[in-house]
Amino acid sequence: MKKYDVAVVGATGAVGQAMIKILEQRQFPVGNVHLLASSRSAGSTLKFAGKDIVIEDLAEFDFSKVQIGLFSAGGDISAEFAPKAAAAGCIVIDNTSHFRMDKDIPLVVPEVNPEAIADYKNRGIIANPNCSTIQMLVALAPIHAAVGIERINVATYQAVSGTGAPAIEELKAQSKAILEGEETEAKVYPKQIAFNVLPHIDVFQENGYTKEEMKMVLETKKILGDEAVLVNPTCVRVPVIYGHSEALHIETKKPLTPAEATAILAKAPGVKVLDEQKDGGYATPAIESEGDDYTWVSRIRQDISHPRGLNLWCVSDNVRKGAALNSIQIAEYLINHYL
Ligand code: NAP
Ligand code: 12T
Q1: Cα–ligand 2 centroid distance for 203 (angstroms)
Q2: Active-site residue, selected from the candidate residues 131, 144, 235, 314
Q3: Nearest to 176, CA basis, from 188, 192, 163, 190
Q4: What is the residue with the minimal CA distance to atom 1 of ligand 2?
């Protein structure tokens, strides 16, 4: 079997660590692997497939050594190094928001618009969408394809792992301090996240929405190829470590009963329906989604205030399907169809 040399950029981070684990678990045909991070980590080692691999400094890496680069070291890093890597012949799959809305860069959820991957030829870069957009579209694209969706109202309940390893530490440290009756310290988030919720993810925009909310609006239109679809988001951080949840309220073009929606979703790729309408008969981030590849859908029911309204609850591991797994699915499609 043909093998591909792969660079993981941001290998020490929350997403990079998940990338390494998923490359191993899915037996991606990796030839040589290069684990890249900042000069702070260069020289120390990480394990890949049972071997110790020395971390290399991104700033000094020669991207002509690899065919695929999985980038998750922040938008500024991608802005500088992704075009350089692409110029050296490495195809970049980028997890940051930097290139997502560029017209000539494909923005891909493999269950939804894999055909867009063909456009990697434009600039040698493929963008991975935002975690909240990915799981929402895995759940809603099959309904959009069947009956059309006019409008999506969504409230998210997002895990701290979305912000990276330091945020996971902050939630744990604050939780411990509170349980021990001590003062808490907030560094990563502007207010205490333990035993609290913050209606704020990413930076505030001029229109009063946050950047995370606007990603959901703009990325949804691009991925569905439907400029008319309306998205009204509120993004909220909750004290969960892994797994984002979303309350989805949709208005379809043609009416769709909850039973019909359930039948569509039961056959949809990447979706698992858990909707027993009894105590515990629904998906939760810490129990069902953590470490799992599926987008779980529960609480499928008629909007009692709207004739073409449907409500759903969806949960997915934000670091896996929301970032690392989605990128590696893109890489698999790329090698199977184009390389
Ligand atoms: P993290 O845990 O804080 O890790 C950051 C990683 O970036 C570390 O490996 C770090 O290496 C590396 N890095 C930082 N500065 C660098 C530099 N100057 N040169 C080379 N490497 C550098 O963050 P994370 O959660 O893994 O997220 C990383 C990025 O992925 C985010 O900024 C975001 O853009 C993207 N992301 C996307 C999604 C999504 O929705 N698709 C979700 C989460 C994250 P050191 O250990 O050497 O500092
Ligand atoms: N600020 O990739 O904080 O656009 O949870 C993903 C997650 C940005 C992104 C977060 C973020 C992204 C977060």
Answers
A1: 10
A2: 131
A3: 192
A4: 202
Predicted pLDDT of residue 231: 99
Question: Chain-wide mean pLDDT for the chain?
Answer: 98
Span from the CA of 96 to the centroid of ligand 2 (angstroms): 8
**Could you report the per-residue pLDDT of 190-209, keeping only the tens digit for each?**
999 999 999 999 999 999 99
Helix (H) or strand (E) holding 212: helix 211-224
Rounded Cα–Cα distance for residues 284 and 287 (Å): 6
The contacts of residue 260 (CB under 8 Å, 6+ apart) are none
Residue 172 exposed, middle or buried by CB count within 10 Å (0-12, 13-18, 19+): middle
Task: State in Å: Cα 10 to ligand 1 middle.
Answer: 5
Residues of the chain with pLDDT under 70: none
Any idea which ligand is nearest the CA of 78? 1
Q: Which of 72, 202, 321, 327 to mutate to test the pocket of ligand 2 (most atoms within 8 A of CB)?
A: 202
Read off the pTM.
0.98
What is the 8-class DSSP label of residue 100? T
3-class state of residue 43 by DSSP: coil
Q: What are phi and psi of 146, to 5 degrees?
A: -80, -45
Q: Find out whether 294 and 277 touch, Cβ atoms under 8 Å.
A: no
pLDDT at 208: 98
Q: Is 201 in the pocket of ligand 2 (CB under 6 A)?
A: yes
Ramachandran angles phi, psi of 155, nearest 5°: -120, 130
Q: How far apart are CA 331 and CA 91, in angstroms?
A: 9
Count of beta carbons in the 10 Å neighbourhood of residue 269: 12
Residue 118 confidence (pLDDT):
98
* 56-67 residue pLDDT tens: 999 999 999 999
Instruction: Check residue 1 and give its pLDDT.
Output: 85
